[in-house]
Amino acid sequence: MRGLRLAAGLLALGLGLAACGSDTGTGTGSGSTSGGNAPAAATVKVGLAYDIGGRGDQSFNDSAARGLDKAKAEFGIEIKELEAAAGETDAQKEDRLRQLAEGGYNTIIAVGFAYGPALTKAAADYPEVKFALIDSEDATGANIANLVFAEQEGSFLVGVAAALKSQTGNVGFIGGVNVPLIQKFEVGFTAGVKAVKADATVQVKYLTQPPDFTGFNDPAKGETAANGMFDAGADVVYAAAGGSGNGAFKAAKAKGKLGIGVDSDQYNLPALADVKDVIITSMLKQVDVAVYDFIKSVKDTKFAAGSKVYDLKADGVGYSTSGGKVDDIKAKIDEYKAKIISGEIKVPASK
């Protein structure tokens, strides 16, 4: 039965993979093994399946890419990268993971919670492959590592920054898609704002509702949402929306307002050079560290299944200081950081 399933899956891949993903990077070989043989145990071959937006989104996916690039440079490993497409099904995601496994990639990283159902099915059929799922604990198994983050803690800190920098006492939060993961960003940010200014207004807008995940890669929607918030009195907007956040920065620049980045230190990204003067800080989510750590664990034969939480105490989340725009309030932000690490402040993770 498994042979029939794999044959059918491979035929489907040959007919339809181009519609659901694209190969954006190759390693030192063709990415396949002759005769279906498994790769040598000592050989680490890494396949990475991106979330929507892929490499170049200036945010979440790019952070994962940095971790992959670091591992490739240090370990000389072969890699293959595949991208997601808007509107694809769980079956298409599963096909992408199976393509990597059948290609001999014995270390596979799925970037984003949306891969949960697909990875659950694929991992069961490839017990010799080590899988990592970023941002979700929904898929579990002896060969699955769940790499998750305390996004609410980092978001609390940039909420503090927003409240201290706001002149109007009115700030905004833009979420890419209204799902529990992004709600962690929202509630953490709101808690940080309110810790500084209890009477502050926090406007909230989600760009799309599931199963529509295009809100993570639609700068035009991000710009429209930010403009609406600025017109309603906000002077600082935090966008946890992947590539859509680029539009929020564009709106902030046009209106002389301020923006807060997410996942990567967006002030330093070359593609955002035209708007970096409005980016006061970014909530750092060290996806690159998690990706690198996972690959190294497999290379060193120290793979561990189950959840690994990257929180503030582990330096898995934080805030950036590039550009010097929060230098005057850094001491205050760090006071809150210390209280979170010590447990004095418990940051909510859900509404």
Beta content: 15-25%
How helix-rich are the residues, as a percent range?
25-40%
Count of the separate structural domains:
2
CATH topology of the largest domain: Rossmann fold
Poorly predicted regions are 1-41
Radius of gyration (CA) equals: 21 Å
CATH architecture of the largest domain: 3-Layer(aba) Sandwich
H/E element order: HEEHEHEHEEHEHEHEHEEHEEH
Helix count equals: 10
Q: How many strands, what sense, and barrel or not for the largest sheet?
A: 7 strands, mixed
What value does the average pLDDT take?
89
**Structural class, from secondary structure content?**
alpha/beta
Q: Which CATH class of the largest domain?
A: Alpha Beta
Question: Ends: how far apart?
Answer: 45 Å
Strand order of the largest sheet: 1-3-2-4-5-6-12
Walk me through this protein's architecture.
- β2, α2 (60-75) and β3 form a beta-alpha-beta unit.
- This protein folds into two domains: 41-149 and 288-310, Rossmann fold; 151-285 and 321-342, Response regulator (Rossmann fold), CATH 3.40.50.
- It contains ten helices and 13 strands.
- Helix content is 40%, strand content 20%.
- The chain starts with a helix and ends in a 9-residue tail after the last helix.
- The protein is globular.
- Mean pLDDT is 89; it is low at 1-41.
- With 351 residues, the chain is an alpha/beta fold.
- The strands form two sheets. A seven-stranded mixed β-sheet has the order 1-3-2-4-5-6-12, sandwiched between helices. The chain has a six-stranded mixed β-sheet with strand order 8-7-9-10-11-13, with helices on both faces.
- α2 (60-75) packs parallel to α9.
